Amino acid sequence: MINAGCLGACTYCKTKHARGHLGSYTIKSLEEHIRNVVADGVKDIWISSEDTGAYGRDIGINLPILLEAIIAELPFDRSTMF
Questions:
Q1: What is the pLDDT along the chain (82 residues), one digit of tens a residue?
Q2: Domains by residue range for the chain, with CATH
Q3: Gene3D superfamilies recorded for this chain (predicted)?
């Protein structure tokens, strides 16, 4: 997960009530997690969240910056898919 909660207030959705306001993980913590799972031999990395497009709005960054940082952590031999 790259974040939890959401920014929306959709009347049909209970995510915000269940998970709370948007809380994004820092790029540094996600990079460290990527390095650890790659070192453990993980071959397929997926990102997920309740509000993926809103990633980073609460901490002053955005999804494209995160994606570039994740790609930079992947092995050059392409042994891990993202």
A1: 999 988 877 878 877 778 888 999 999 999 999 999 999 999 999 999 988 999 999 999 999 999 999 999 999 999 999 9
A2: 3-73 (3.30.750.210)
A3: 3.30.750.210
